[in-house]
Write a structure and sequence with these properties.
By secondary structure, this protein is of the alpha+beta class. The protein contains 8 helices and 6 strands; from the N terminus they run ααβββββααβαααα. It folds into 2 domains: 20-207, no CATH class; 221-260, no CATH class. The protein is globular, with a radius of gyration of 22 Å.
Amino acid sequence: MTRFYLALLFIALLPIQISACPKYNRKDYRHWIDVDRDCQNTRNEVLIQESLDPVSFKTSKGCKVSSGRWFGSFTGQTFYNPKQLDIDHLVPLKEAHESGAHAWSKSKKRDYANDMGHPDHLIAVSSRANRSKGAKDPSEWMPPDQSYWRQYAQAWVGIKIRWGLTADSSEISVLQDILGPSAQMPEQAPEVNCSASGRSSSKKKKEVSIQSSGGAFQCGAKRYCKHMDSCEEALFHLNQCGRKGLDRDRDGVPCEKICK
């Protein structure tokens, strides 16, 4: 046997190295940073950019915003106090991580976390609504204000395509329900469940069927699943009205019998 074939045999017998998917760590996506070193970090830059009125600052240095007027797209509410607002990564950092960003360099992760190149990437929204959203994708959560659904779906798709991120089948299904079957979509791939060991597997997710009826809901006396006429009404009361009792297992899906 020649040395050439011995070398091939040696290579064939080497253990296969499986690329690791490191566990998501928010600190890896460094934010908020002061890119232009003007003392205003990304959070304050977004607040300044999105305020409908000239903002006021805490001090004469003009570093931190103290007041302004913002329209919160998730809820359709107007805010004057920035303490009531979160700066939302429309495609959450953890969602991005499990859709391909885990393989990025530190600098690219930082750039994603602070991207102000597109107005839909970082948006000022109600803190309460944003924390209800968490790291959920559109198959698991949609903004309480249904009039924003189409714009939200368009922005989600645009960000994923721009950054080369994938979308799983349930995510694409909901996005197509909103945008239409011919709308351009991100590349489809199972969402990766990143763990400290580096093993990856397809993450099973509980899907929420979202149908936009155009109906308007209001917080009132309704408190229990038996009072809800639809899944979207249950979602509204959970996310907008704080009816935590609708989601007893705390998985973000209210009234399991109607939100199948």
